[in-house]
Structure formats: structure tokens, C-alpha cells
Amino acid sequence: MKYEAVIGLEVHAELLTESKIFCGCSTKFGSEPNTQVCPVCLGLPGTLPVLNKKVVEYAVRAGLALNCTIANFSKMDRKNYFYPDLPKAYQISQYDLPLCSNGYLEIEIDGQTKKIGIKRIHIEEDAGKLLHENTDGSLVDYNRAGVPLIEIVSEPDISTPEEAYQYLTKLKSILEYTEVSDCKMQEGSLRVDTNVSIRPVGSKELGTKIELKNLNSFKAVQKALEYEIKRQIKVLEESGTIIQETRRWNESKGITEPMRTKEEAHDYRYFPEPDLVPIVVTEEWKEEIRQSLPEMPHHKRERFISEYGLPEYDAKIITSSKKMADFFEKCVAEYYSPKTVSNWLMGEFSRLLNETGKEIDEVPVTPQMLVKLLKLIDNGVISGSIAKTVFEEMFGTGKEPEVIVEEKGLKQIANENELREIIKKVIDENPKSVEDYKNGKEKAMGFLVGQVMKATKGKANPQLTNQILKEELSK
Amino acid sequence: MELYSLTIHQLKEFLHKKEVSVLEVTRAYLERIKEVEPQIDALITITEEFALQRAKEADEKIKNGEAKDLTGIPVIIKDNISTEGIRTTCSSKMLENYVPPYNATVVERLLEEGAVILGKSNLDEFAMGSSTENSAFKTTKNPWDLSRVPGGSSGGSAAAVAADEAAFALGSDTGGSIRQPASLCGVVGMKPTYGLVSRYGLVAFASSLDQIGPFTKDVTDCAIVLNTIIGHDPMDSTSLKIDKPDYTSYLKEDIKGLKIGVAKEFFSTGIEKGVKETVQKAIKVFEDLGADIIDISIPYLEYALPAYYIIASAEASSNLARYDGIRYGHIAKNYEDLIDMYMTGRSEGFGKEVKRRIMLGTYALSSGYYDAYYKKALKVRTLIKNDFERAFEKCDVIVGPTSPTVAFKIGERTNDPLAMYLADIYTVSVNIAGLPGISLPCGLSDGLPVGLQVIGKHFDEGRIINVAYAFEQANKFNAKPQAIGGAR
Amino acid sequence: MAISKCEVEHVAKLARLKFSAEEIEEFTVQLSKILDYVNKLNELDTENVEPTAHIVPIHNVFREDEVKPSMDREKILINASYTENGCFKVPKIIE
After folding, report:
1. Which of B131, B177, B317, B439 is catalytic?
2. Can you state the angle between helices A431-438 and A416-429, rounded to 10 degrees?
3. What integer pLDDT is reported at residue B270 of this predicted model?
4. Interchain CB distance below 8 Å, A39 and B235
5. CB contact under 8 A, C41 and B381
6. Do B324 and A84 touch (CB under 8 A)?
7. Are the C-beta atoms of residues B187 and B215 closer than 8 Å to each other?
8. Which residue range forms the structural domain that includes residue A327?
9. How many Å lie between the alpha carbon of A50 and the closest alpha carbon of chain B?
10. Is B78 tagged catalytic?
11. First CA to last CA across chain C, in angstroms?
């Protein structure tokens, strides 16, 4: 029998507000434990929440970018459960009246566009953090308690792990574009849960749903889903039954494992939060937020093609991340050679980002630094190939390109006499190739250039090398 | 005439004319507290040092001509209102050693005016109860008869004012917790409209019903205190932005032509004959003052109490979930694991009535029961709100008894939770509908005070004060509690 | 009985409360009595009645997104029984 998967994704994104959702504490990441805490976010007896207006605006912004219906009337609810990271023993969230619903985003699969439904987007507060380094107990840091979140729930329209990956990539790009979240998975500002069930192709009934946790990257989501779908198919083919459970992705083993199940079923006892009043988003407010929306990826892509003359392929890759697009525009503003910049971004830069798993704003290379590097090439100070070495050094250390060139003595040899001496030596040492060249074998020229480069550790000016070689060989 | 038996407006005059210093007044009250407290047990914490310090500062203010209405006036705060640096226990073992690092907004407002905090008063644990017997620390006695309860949950505040331990006190009212003890102790107590006084710093019992209000010796004082404690607070989303009226401008004796509604439903369930007669006499006083007495009806009134118990308990079950001992409060010493730490600590820290309400509330919100209980109760809330709206189309205020009985005996109802709940039968509907209500003494029945409740429209506190003041001036209730040396 | 012993035990667990066998008996009786009383609400037909969660009908009460100073950590931790390295301490949790 052939099976198909039904996949749902729940994404939590921390919003880029300055202060927390219900109090004035800072949302800055990475501070000393419990230094961004006040009576309100600590849930001291008698304290009350007051909603941060930006949180509503950011959620609506995300909703508009994801083609959602924005609720005219919305409210906050309490979700009750006990855990040490939850100071009030309830999370203020939204239950039956979320701010945004019924949206979608489009992904491209094998050149085809597919719509993935967004069921809802709601706002809520984050919990604190448990630290487990100690042996005799766990420690609680409430700096994160009260940081605003949006939860984005997809419709179960996703049917392959690849689609899930594309959905997440697109979603992240939109959230970055709208500037509502910085989407840093390693800092926990973007978190993904997924659930998956399988059913025979053509069947309308849904299979037993398995929830997957501990997904630390989009690739992990994809791999976990691939594994889990195979596992479920195997269970069914061996006439077993799939038990509803939560499974954990074990990255190192590449498998999903059952999580120790908590014996009691959750009963969150949702009810309307009496300490907060309803949220009414009027048409005027909604339009105001819509006006403030930054340029979306597809618009940006079209503009990059028309304004900078980029090929469609380049424009698509550069605009897939807002940070990359911003970097590109900053470079082009100082160095108007769009295609050169785009080649660098798609080439060396992307290669190193992929290798290190970092985001463009997490590495020390600034647009100004890249522009300086490109100018060094143009001015003949270094060659294009040396520039790659310099760039790698910039990427790793954050040093300015000219400093690296100076320190490592990478300056191009453009002195004619100096270079002619080296070339003469190369000609003397390679009589066979010289003869080949003179017999009309053009390839021999390339070999000789390579030998010159080798002798100069790549520092020879390529044009000059060609010119002098030809002169010397024709003698 | 003893200093401690004076009203705020009398004290204020003496202080502003510098006939007496705040320090003298404060010392007189602290002496009075030492004298009667062994009998009354109204207070959990006496803040003598803090009070004397504040008294000196208040004297400075008066000297510098910066005196305000409450400068130098001694006050007692219910122990579920957060006071920075002063233990705030909610009369619970759970918070026995909890010292808040912040002040409630009302406390800030009193301190800004220069009021002198003498101490924190006893209550039913987390304000759940109608007799102050549910305190984990002590049972407060009614100054009129020491074998009787002062009412609750703000029984400590009511008894303290009745026994002249402070010029006024603050309490909180979720289902009658200011008005009912005021009634049983023969003082004036007001629950303002929901949203008039900031709840920031009031330890939540039932967030959609809780409201802070004053206990005073007369209606004039009530207006004075109200002037200070009301007003929008950006820290409380449910506090309203309204123009601040001067409530003392409503202290007028004329109520001619005013329409006073009387609902038969307020004279039905379990009302004592003496209470009924005393309140009926009070209605006669209004008639004599030229008011129009209008028959009205609140048909759904009998459903207010069951709806109240569902709503209040449900909210309480959530509000009290935070007490796990991790950040503050009682923590279990011996436990097996995390869940057991929660269960053991909470069971040790909470008293019976609190647990009962948490259980009821948890049940009412739990999966499968939400619609049948919580949602149902919220719908009944709509019906009761509509009842009052219709009634107020015909009248300006509604009057009736505050409590169906006078103060009952200590221990009389402790084993029957339902009988205890019935003490709130005439007060809860006002919280359900978010309306303002005052209780003021209108006479005695068997030597014990009977309270008259005046209920007004939303934010119509001014009218309530007008009606209550007119009645007070005409009725001249001047009996004093005799169980203690009550010189007044 | 409007509520069974078993339900009382379940609710106690949900509420993180622990009771002795006698207390469970007692609560079952008392809660049943209270529930019988509140079941009075079922006399009313509320089919077409909107629930009232907030008695004063206001909406859109917000604060601006401005950072205010947090509280000194010392004050934050002062009421806790167990602390370590600027954190609150709880029994070891294995996730």
C-alpha cells in the first residue's frame, strides 16, 4: 500500500519588542540570570499585567504578511499548568479568539507553487528558563518570562518533509522581512514543534498523530519527519498500531525516541483573563499597520531585477533572506557593481555561512568591509583569487581587508621588472611547455601562467602576467 | 473626648490648627491598640516604628503648610494589600513570612498624602470567608460582643475601626467583604464601582470581582478617603479613566424627590426579623426626607450567590496556583519529586476553606465542565447585570439590608460552608454587576448593629454618598460598642 | 452525590493539592452539597444569553513599548527559600 503523510507545524517566534509583553523589563538576550525581572513578570501576589501595544501591532503585521484575517475582536485567556519556569502557574495566551486566522503562505516545490494554510496566529508570554548544570537541583532564571511570543499554527496541508522545510524557510524569511522577529533558532527566538500522521493515499481519514520535539534546526525538522514517516509506515506494514505520543528527535543517532510520558493528561482549564481587557483592531488601525509593512520578498525580488539588473536567479537567492538583501543594498550603495556584489554574496559568502551555520548578521564582515575588498581587487592591489583568501580571514577574524593584505604580504606583484624576472625564470625551467606553446598548443600558456602564480603564491597580477609571458615567448 | 475616638474630619481640624501633633495622635492610637487588641485580635502586624517615623514626617508636612486631607491620619490596611517592607500574609501560613518589595497603588496614594500606617489587619485567609474565622493566625472578635464574629473577610479592618484602633481602614470586597463586616461591626464601609480604585497590589482572590474600599466612622470620612484612593492607574488595565469628582461635595442632606428603589428579593431568604424591621424603619426615614420609595424587582437575585461561587472560585483556583514556594511563600521540606513538592507545600500552606474553593474552581474550569459551570455562571452574570440596569431605569439608588443577620456566634457556622456562604446573599449581586455599594449602620437589633446597604449605578458613588449622608444626619445612630471600653 | 471520590482525587491532582483519605471523604460530601446548590443555575435557560467576562465594557488598554528598570536581583530573590548563583533553586528536573 502507498502512504501519504499529513504534517502540521507550530512555530513560536519571539517578537522584537524592547520590553516584555506585560511589563517594562527588557527583552535583551543573554543577560545575567534574574536581572531583567520585576514584581509583574515574577508574578508577585497583587501584581497585574498591562499589554504592550507593539506586541499587538507586530502580531497583526505578521498576520497581514501571511494573508490572515485580522480579528476585529480578540481577547486574552489563561492557560493553567504548573511548572517552575511559569511564575504565575498560568500562561497568558489566546484560546478561542486569536488575533489572526485563516492565512496562507506559498512555497515552491519542483517548480510548482503550493499554498500552505495558516490556521491561526496568537500572542502569548514566554516562560522562564531552567538551567540543569547543577547535580543537586535545577535553577530557574526568569529573564525570559514575559518575553512576547507569537505562535503560528499551520493547517495540515504539508505532505512531505521537503515541504515542511520550504514552509519553515519561507515563514522565517517573512518574519524577518516584517521585522517582527529575529528568528534566531540558537537563541531560542524561533522554536518549532511538528506533528505527523500517515494514511493510505486517497484516504480521507487522519491517522494517529505523533508530536515531535527537540528540533533545533529546519534540517532537523526535515530529517526527523523523514525518519518518523518511514517508522510509521514500517509499523503499519508490520500490522502494528501507532500509539499517540510525543517523540524526541535524537540528532546524533538520527532517530526519534518516545519521550517519557507524563502520567496525567493535560487539562489547561482555559478561561478569559480577567486582568486584561479585550483587543479591538479597527479597520483604521489595521490599515495603519498595513502601511507600515516593509517590502515583501517577491516585491523586493522584482525590484532587484529591474533596478539593479540582476538575473532572476541572483535576485531570488539574494532576497530569500532580508538580511542578505539589506547587506546587498548597503554594498551597492557604495560600490555600484550589483552583479559583482551578488556573485560574492552567492559564492564565497554563502559557502562560508553554510559551512559555519551562521546568519549574515552573526559574522563580523560588514558591507563596508566587503566593499573595501572589492575595491582592492579593482585597484589591482590584490588578485581575485587572493581576495578569496583575504575574505576567509575577514570572515573568521573580523579584520579589515587591507590589514590582512598588509600583515600577510598578499599585495599583488604589479611591478613589471620584478614580474619579468620571475617569468623569465619560469620559461627557463619549463622548456617543454615553451616548445609546446610555440608549436601552437594554446593550453601550454595556461600551464605557464599557473607556474607563475605558484612561484608568486598567487600574487602576480594576472593581466600583467599574460602580457609579459606573451612578450617573452615571442622573443 | 479621646483622640482615638475622633473621625478623620475632626482629627484633620485639630491637626491643621496645630492643636495636636501627628505624633501625639499616633501615640494615642498605638496606646489604644495595646489596650484593646488582646480582646479584639484585629491586627496581624503592628507597625509601631514605621508609624512613629511617618508621624514625624507628617508633622513636618503640616508645619510646612503642605497638609492634605489624610496627612497624619492613622490607618490600618487589610493584610492582603501589598506594603513594601511590611509583611503581607493574607492571613495564610502560605505567606506567613512574605515581605513584598513593592507597594500597592492605594498604599502609595495614602503614603503620598501623609497617612500614618499603624498596622495590617486580620482577614479570612486570602479573603475567603464571611467571619474572619478562616484566618490561619487568629479569630477577630466583634467589639459589640466578643463572643461573636466581626464578619468577613475584612473583619480585622471593620473591628479595628469599630474599636477605635484607627481613624479608618482599607479592606477589599469580592462578594461583600467590606460591606458585611461593616454592617456587623456598626461602621461605614464602601465597595466602589469595579474599576474605580486600582487593584494593583491587592492580592487577587477573584480578579473580576475584587475591589478595594474604605471603612470609616461616618459617611463624611468615607467621601474623604474615596477622594484619595480612586483614579486611573496605568498598572491596572481594568482601572478606568474618569474625571475625579470631589465626593465631599455630595455631603448634602437634601434628597427630596430622589427615587429610592426597594426590591422585595432583598427581604426574602433567611432574613432575621430584627434586621428586616430595622431596615424597614430606615426606609421610613427616607420617606420622611421626601424621597420617593419605588417598588422594584431583581428577579434573578437568588441566582447571584451560586453564580458568584462558581466565578469567584474559578478565578481563585487560577490566582492561587502561583503559590508553590519557589519564589516566595511556604515551601515543603520533605517531598519525593517536583509534583510532590507542589502538592505537599500547597496542602501545608493553605487552610481548609481556601482548598475547598480551589477544588470547586478547578472542577468548574476542568475539561467537560467549563460550559456547564463557568460559562453558565458568566451568562447568569449577564442576567443579573440586566436586572440591575432595568431597575435603575426606575430609580436612582436601591436600598436594603447588607446582611440577612446581625453578627453571629464564633464557631456557629464553621462546619457548614453553605450556611457561611449565605451571609453574602445580599452583597454578592453588587459585585457580580460591578456596582458601587455602601453599608452604614441604621440601628440595633438585640443590641447588635444592623447595616443598611445603598446600591448605586456604575460610578454613581456621589449619589450613594448623598443618600447615605442624608440618612446618617436624619437617623443619628450613635450607639457604641460596649464590649470594650468604647469611649466615642 | 454530585461529584465522586474519584473525581475529587483527580481535581486535587489538577490543583496540586494533597489530601488524606478522610479529607477526600469530607471534600466529596461538601463539594457535592455545594454543587447541588450551584446546580440551581440549571433552572435558567441561558441558551441565547451572552456571557459577561468583564463587567465594565472597555477595550484596548495598552502600555507603550518602553523599557523600565527591572528590580534589583537581591530584592527579586529575597523571599525565596532556596537560591543559588542568582537563580531560584528547585528539585532536580530531568527533561
Report:
1. B177
2. 90
3. 85
4. no
5. no
6. yes
7. yes
8. 297-408
9. 6
10. yes
11. 40
Subunits in contact with chain B (3 or more CB pairs closer than 8 Å): A, C
Kind of pairing, strands B116-121 and B43-46? antiparallel
Number of domains in chain A: 3
**φ, ψ for residue C79, nearest 5 deg:** -90, 0
- How close does chain A come to B42, measured CA to CA in Å? 22
- Active-site residue, from B12, B78, B120, B191: B78
pLDDT of residue B391: 98
Q: Has residue A384 been placed in a domain?
A: yes
Give me the residue label for grid cell 486535587.
C12
pLDDT at position A261 is 59
Q: Please tell me whether residue C84 adopts helix, strand or coil conformation.
A: strand
Three-state DSSP at B227 gives helix
* B93 vs A298, higher pLDDT: B93
Residue A322 within any structural domain of the chain: yes
Q: What is the pLDDT of residues B357-414, one digit of tens each?
A: 999 999 999 998 999 999 999 999 999 999 999 999 999 999 999 999 999 999 999 9
From A265, A285, A305, give the residue that closes a domain.
Answer: A285
In a domain, A290, yes or no: no
Neighbours of C, requiring at least 3 CB pairs below 8 Å, are A, B
Q: How many Cβ pairs within 8 Å bridge chains B and C?
A: 152
- Please say if B367 is a catalytic residue: no
Q: Specify whether the CB–CB gap between B326 and C77 falls below 8 A.
A: no
The answer to whether A269 contacts B342, with C-beta atoms less than 8 Å apart, is no
- Give exposure, C40-75, as e/b (b: 16+ Cβ within 10 Å): ebeeeebeebebbbbbbeeeebbbebebeebbebeb
CB A68 within 8 A of CB A103: yes
Residue in A44, A267, A277 nearest the CB of B100: A44
**C1-4, Cβ contacts within 8 angstroms, sequence gap of 24 or more:** C1/C28, C1/C29, C1/C32, C2/C31, C2/C32, C2/C35, C2/C36, C2/C39, C3/B363, C3/C28, C3/C31, C3/C32, C3/C35, C4/C28
Do A173 and A312 have their domain in common? Answer: no
pLDDT of residue A260: 67
Chain A residues closer than 8 Å to B95 by CB: 45
A270 membership: H or E segment, kind and range: none
End-of-domain residue from the set A285, A317, A350: A285
Are A142 and A37 within 8 A, CB to CB?
Answer: yes
Show residues of chain A in contact with B206, CB under 8 Å: 274
Q: Is the domain of A74 the same as that of A92? A: yes
Residue A188: CB atoms within 10 A of its CB come to 15
Preferred mutation among B359, B367, B382 to probe C, highest tally of C CBs within 10 A: B359
CA-based nearest residue in chain B for residue A50: B237
* Grid cell of A398 as nine digits: 573580523
Question: Which sign does the torsion angle of CA B109, B113, B118, B123 carry?
Answer: negative
Q: ipTM of the assembly?
A: 0.97
Asked whether residue A402 falls in the same domain as residue A421, the answer is no
**How many CA atoms are closer than 13 Å to the CA of A375, on its beta-carbon side?**
14
- Which architecture does CATH list for C5-41? Orthogonal Bundle (1.10)
Q: Identify the band that residue B486 occupies on the pLDDT scale cut at 50, 70 and 90.
A: very low
Query: If chain A, 475 residues long, is cut into consecutive pieces of 10 residues, what is the mean pLDDT of each piece?
Result: 94 98 97 98 98 98 97 97 97 98 94 95 97 87 98 96 96 93 91 95 90 93 96 92 92 90 74 98 97 88 94 91 92 94 94 88 93 90 87 93 87 82 88 85 85 85 85 82
Tell me the C-alpha distance between A356 and A363, whole Å: 10
Domains of chain B (ranges, CATH numbers): 3-257+460-475 (3.90.1300.10)
Verify that A160 and A115 share a domain, yes or no: yes
Beta bridge partners of A108: A113
Instruction: Note whether B318 contacts A271, CB cutoff 8 Å.
Output: yes
3-state secondary structure at position B124: coil
